[in-house]
């Protein structure tokens, strides 16, 4: 059915790839078609000049998808403007669809309500088309939706919310992106749309016809980073609780009908870009809180009824670039002082009442005082004239080379090579800066883009950015040229991969650029040939292919005879030395690895997904070898732990290890995706955890700030993972190396237990395990385990107790010869508030408003590190204790974490990834005694 459906679409579409021939899209490797187990799972055709319509034949693909376990279908037909007509309602039958991306095409008509049936949908991007009608309320049923982009269409009506029997967008509690700008939505913004359970970071409602007031419930969504409500018909007072949104970096309220007092945004210390222009606020003196916004780059308050003299401090924020206060009642003398921001580019004060200007030598700021009293007497100073061009330009400079002249349509790249680039326009919807001539900012964008393409194995040599301009919608537009690597042209696979990374938001711009979309141009240079030159060379190509083919057949026959003889000899030897030699990965026959969900990867596949194990993709190293980030063909990002030659285990030991790891399946335990035992290589393939280790965050390496609430959720997640290993895994597992390096944090800062290099299976029914070697990490090691050589699950409990002290203090278990457990015991006094531990607690914990929860947390940690294992709680009891502590702190332990690290991405820096094994896995020969590490 899937093949029939795909062939039906082929008959409707024009300009399909030329290799769409034959009857087998998978076997013949049609461009843009990805298959798994000989079934079509992905259609990705970007910027290939497709034209036609989507017909109801697509429902044939859904039947095939239901036969594929754990596979998702992605559809990306972006940047094909010839694709027109409506979306068929049959699209709702593609039940495995996870990404529906139709950006920059010509689709029209209403969005079919059947889209609400796509329960696996994570990305829904329909922006930059011609859709009309209302947002289907059924979209509220998409509980997994992360990205919803309906911008740049002709949609109308109200924003739907649920009413008991009808779903609505307020139900999308996992969504982080609502992009609805440049439509025709009307009515009020429903207060029900917002709640404290939402984790939205981008709310874009600009350029619509919305009316009424801003609901006060908006102040509950404290994860918001970008808010655009400008160019609507909103009215009334701005809610007083707007300054609760302390993570907001860009706030656009301009061109509405707001009245009442100017909102006080004190405390919004991350706010970089603020525009409240053209509203009817009450007349007010220059607010002092303007100067308190320490991250401010751009202040635009044109026609907002502000008055009085500008304080010198207004120009002192370190990153300030632009101040536009036109058409107000500002008076007195302008004095920007001597300590103004070194980045300040423009001060526009046209149409005010300024009658003086204190000038100093060396000013390099563009100042405009046209239509102020100081210029009314025929002043000829520069500030009394409007400059012709205040927008600086930028283009990527050559990379230590001299540009060359190129023939035909080729262009000289930043590396001075002639090639046919893939071109398009990058559009940033809410940049939090205004200096578009800042070469450092755009150089960071260029570098981030190159790093992303290379880390995902895309054939890109360089990228060229040019002509930044702010359009009428306050969007930043940039021309983008992407140059091929290894050839002077891209093939369709290259264009599709690059286009998909931009349309699917795989590329994350640096901080400050905000949400973006890309509109790619059709790429006419496949195979490096125009249509005319292709015809002239076709005859020679056919002749060459015929001669080459004949020679190839003869060589293949000779090679086949030789290979058959060698194969018989090799099979017998291989079966004796390789436990995988007779293994069919599609079966679980005896004598081969008994795997539960893990996949065997060929070496060549892992080589491709890491770009030949390129050092750019290396994310850590350890005694075992190196760890690489890779992207599988299904676009899953993984961490590949590759053993260095000389340190590999024997085949039987490696087989045992992957069998062990494949048994572990829990949301708080890092999953083994698969392994490779091929061409002499031993590799483990794990799910990739984006935010590194708990230790990195506690030490300030990752740039992620962990408040007390987040730490409690991390403690609960780690405890649940360890409880699963002890009591629910079959057979039970002792981790033996619990520590902050081995607790990883995913995108939502959920904790996952990782690294099972030292783990042991517990025998049944007796759980004790006697060993002749003590292994673990100094500072976390159970002293009873060391003394008795008996490893039990209570050894993990001891290590977990030390981990709890790390969460409390943000200190390493051993610092300057002092053991954290002894330090806490020595300092604590239970008769005092927070047990008198404020001096050694992390300041974030010490300032907590629920001191009783901290005290109970200390009590639990002390119980976990009791000298005798019998006196320690089980991990099941630990989970219950942490849940009680969370309730004391006002948290719901059963709620999913709404924390996110996206606010801190810009602060992160490269650090060794925790998949490496730096666990000091050694056999102790000396005497280990925590008593020896007590404070002196």
From TrEMBL:
<keyword id="KW-0723">Serine/threonine-protein kinase</keyword>
<keyword id="KW-0418">Kinase</keyword>
<feature type="binding site">
    <location>
        <position position="641"/>
    </location>
    <ligand>
        <name>ATP</name>
    </ligand>
</feature>
<feature type="region of interest" description="Disordered">
    <location>
        <begin position="893"/>
        <end position="912"/>
    </location>
</feature>
<dbReference type="Pfam" id="PF07714">
    <property type="entry name" value="PK_Tyr_Ser-Thr"/>
</dbReference>
<keyword id="KW-0675">Receptor</keyword>
<feature type="transmembrane region" description="Helical">
    <location>
        <begin position="541"/>
        <end position="565"/>
    </location>
</feature>
<dbReference type="InterPro" id="IPR011009">
    <property type="entry name" value="Kinase-like_dom_sf"/>
</dbReference>
<dbReference type="InterPro" id="IPR008271">
    <property type="entry name" value="Ser/Thr_kinase_AS"/>
</dbReference>
<dbReference type="InterPro" id="IPR001245">
    <property type="entry name" value="Ser-Thr/Tyr_kinase_cat_dom"/>
</dbReference>
<dbReference type="GO" id="GO:0016020">
    <property type="term" value="C:membrane"/>
</dbReference>
<keyword id="KW-0325">Glycoprotein</keyword>
<keyword id="KW-0808">Transferase</keyword>
<protein>
    <recommendedName>
        <fullName>non-specific serine/threonine protein kinase</fullName>
        <ecNumber>2.7.11.1</ecNumber>
    </recommendedName>
</protein>
<keyword id="KW-0547">Nucleotide-binding</keyword>
<dbReference type="GO" id="GO:0005524">
    <property type="term" value="F:ATP binding"/>
</dbReference>
<dbReference type="Pfam" id="PF00560">
    <property type="entry name" value="LRR_1"/>
</dbReference>
<dbReference type="InterPro" id="IPR001611">
    <property type="entry name" value="Leu-rich_rpt"/>
</dbReference>
<dbReference type="InterPro" id="IPR000719">
    <property type="entry name" value="Prot_kinase_dom"/>
</dbReference>
<keyword id="KW-0812">Transmembrane</keyword>
<keyword id="KW-0732">Signal</keyword>
<keyword id="KW-0433">Leucine-rich repeat</keyword>
<feature type="domain" description="Protein kinase">
    <location>
        <begin position="613"/>
        <end position="885"/>
    </location>
</feature>
<keyword id="KW-0677">Repeat</keyword>
<keyword id="KW-0472">Membrane</keyword>
<dbReference type="InterPro" id="IPR032675">
    <property type="entry name" value="LRR_dom_sf"/>
</dbReference>
<keyword id="KW-1133">Transmembrane helix</keyword>
<dbReference type="GO" id="GO:0004674">
    <property type="term" value="F:protein serine/threonine kinase activity"/>
</dbReference>
<dbReference type="InterPro" id="IPR017441">
    <property type="entry name" value="Protein_kinase_ATP_BS"/>
</dbReference>
<keyword id="KW-0067">ATP-binding</keyword>
């Amino acid at each position: 059915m899937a093949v029939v459906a795909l062939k039906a679409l082929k008959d409707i579409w024009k300009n399909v790839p030329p290799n769409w021939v034959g009857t087998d899209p998978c076997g013949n490797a049609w461009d843009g078609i990805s298959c798994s187990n000989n079934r079509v799972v992905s259609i990705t055709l970007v910027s290939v000049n497709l034209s036609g319509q989507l017909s109801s034949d697509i429902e044939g693909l859904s039947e095939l998808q239901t036969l594929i376990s754990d596979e998702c279908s992605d559809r990306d037909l972006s940047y094909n403007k010839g694709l027109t007509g409506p979306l068929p309602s049959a699209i709702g039958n593609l039940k495995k669809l996870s990404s529906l991306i139709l950006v920059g095409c010509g689709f029209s008509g209403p969005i079919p309500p059947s889209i609400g049936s796509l329960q696996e949908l994570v990305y829904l991007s329909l922006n930059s088309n011609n859709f009309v009608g209302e947002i289907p309320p059924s979209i509220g049923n998409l509980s997994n939706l992360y990205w919803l982009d309906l911008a740049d269409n002709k949609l109308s009506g109200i924003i739907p919310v649920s009413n008991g029997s009808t779903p609505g967008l307020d139900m999308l509690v996992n969504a982080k992106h609502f992009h609805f700008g440049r439509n025709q939505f009307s009515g009020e913004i429903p207060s029900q749309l917002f709640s404290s359970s939402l984790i939205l970071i981008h709310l874009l409602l600009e350029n619509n016809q919305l009316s009424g007031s801003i609901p006060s419930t908006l102040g509950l969504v404290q994860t918001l980073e970008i808010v655009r409500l400008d160019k609507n018909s909103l009215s009334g007072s701005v809610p007083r609780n707007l300054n609760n949104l302390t993570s907001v970096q860009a706030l656009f309220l301009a061109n509405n009908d707001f009245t009442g007092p100017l909102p006080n945004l004190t405390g919004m210390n991350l706010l970089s870009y603020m525009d409240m222009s053209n509203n009817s606020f009450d007349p007010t003196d220059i607010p002092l809180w303007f100067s308190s916004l320490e991250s401010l780059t751009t202040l635009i308050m044109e026609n907002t009824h502000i008055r009085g003299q500008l304080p010198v401090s207004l120009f002192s924020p370190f990153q300030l670039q632009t101040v536009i206060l036109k058409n107000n009642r500002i008076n007195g003398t302008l004095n920007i002082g001597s300590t103004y921001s070194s980045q300040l580019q423009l001060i526009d004060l046209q149409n005010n009442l300024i009658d003086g200007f204190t000038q100093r030598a060396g000013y390099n700021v563009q100042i405009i005082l046209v239509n102020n009293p100081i210029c009314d007497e025929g002043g000829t100073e520069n500030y009394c004239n409007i400059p012709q061009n205040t927008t600086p330009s930028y283009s990527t400079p050559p990379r230590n080379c001299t540009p060359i002249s190129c023939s035909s349509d080729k262009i000289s790249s930043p590396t001075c090579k002639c090639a046919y680039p893939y071109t398009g326009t990058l559009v940033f919807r809410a940049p939090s800066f205004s200096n578009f001539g800042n070469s450092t900012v755009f150089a960071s964008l260029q570098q981030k883009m190159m790093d992303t393409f290379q880390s995902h194995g895309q054939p890109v040599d360089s990228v060229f950015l040019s002509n930044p301009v702010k359009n009428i919608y306050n969007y930043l537009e940039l021309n983008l040229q992407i140059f091929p690597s290894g050839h002077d042209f891209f093939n369709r696979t290259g264009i599709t991969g690059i286009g998909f990374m931009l349309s699917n938001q795989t590329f994350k711009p640096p901080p400050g650029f905000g949400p973006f979309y890309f509109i790619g141009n059709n790429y006419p240079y496949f195979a490096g040939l125009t249509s005319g030159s292709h015809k002239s060379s076709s005859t020679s190509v056919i002749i060459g292919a015929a001669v080459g083919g004949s020679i190839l057949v003869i060589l293949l026959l000779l090679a086949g005879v030789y290979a058959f003889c060698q194969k018989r000899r090799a099979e017998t030897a291989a079966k004796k030395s390789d436990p995988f030699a007779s293994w069919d990965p599609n079966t679980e026959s005896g004598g081969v690895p008994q795997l539960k969900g893990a996949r065997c990867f060929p070496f060549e596949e892992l080589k491709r997904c890491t770009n030949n194990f390129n050092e750019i993709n290396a994310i850590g190293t350890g005694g075992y070898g190196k760890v690489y980030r890779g992207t599988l063909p299904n676009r899953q990002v993984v961490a590949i732990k590759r053993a260095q030659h000389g340190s590999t285990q024997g085949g039987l030991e490696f087989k045992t290890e992957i069998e062990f790891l494949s048994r572990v399946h829990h949301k708080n335990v890092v999953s083994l995706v698969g392994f490779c035992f091929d061409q002499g290589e031993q590799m483990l393939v794990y799910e990739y955890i984006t935010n590194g280790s708990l230790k990195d965050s506690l030490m300030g390496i990752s740039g992620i700030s962990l408040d007390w609430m987040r730490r409690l959720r991390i403690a609960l997640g780690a405890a649940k993972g360890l409880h699963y290993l002890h009591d629910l895994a079959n057979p039970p597992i002792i981790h033996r190396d619990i520590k902050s390096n081995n607790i990883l944090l995913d995108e939502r800062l959920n904790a996952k237990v990782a690294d099972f290099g030292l783990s042991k299976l517990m025998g049944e029914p007796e759980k004790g395990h006697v060993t002749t070697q003590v292994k673990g990490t100094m500072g976390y090691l159970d002293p009873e385990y060391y003394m008795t050589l008996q490893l039990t699950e209570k050894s993990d409990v001891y290590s977990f107790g030390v981990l709890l002290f790390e969460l409390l203090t943000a200190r390493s278990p051993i610092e300057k010869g002092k053991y954290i457990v002894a330090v806490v015991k020595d300092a604590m006094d239970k008769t005092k508030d927070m047990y008198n531990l404020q001096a050694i607690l992390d300041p974030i914990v010490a300032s907590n408003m629920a001191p009783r929860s901290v005290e109970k947390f200390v009590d639990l940690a002390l119980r976990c590190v009791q000298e005798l294992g019998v006196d320690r709680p089980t991990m099941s009891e630990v989970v219950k204790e942490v849940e009680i502590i969370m309730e004391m702190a006002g948290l719901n332990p059963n709620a999913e974490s709404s924390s996110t690290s996206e606010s801190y991405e810009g602060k992160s820096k490269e650090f060794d990834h925790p998949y490496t094994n730096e666990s000091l896995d050694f056999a102790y020969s000396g005497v280990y005694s925590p008593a020896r590490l007590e404070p002196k």
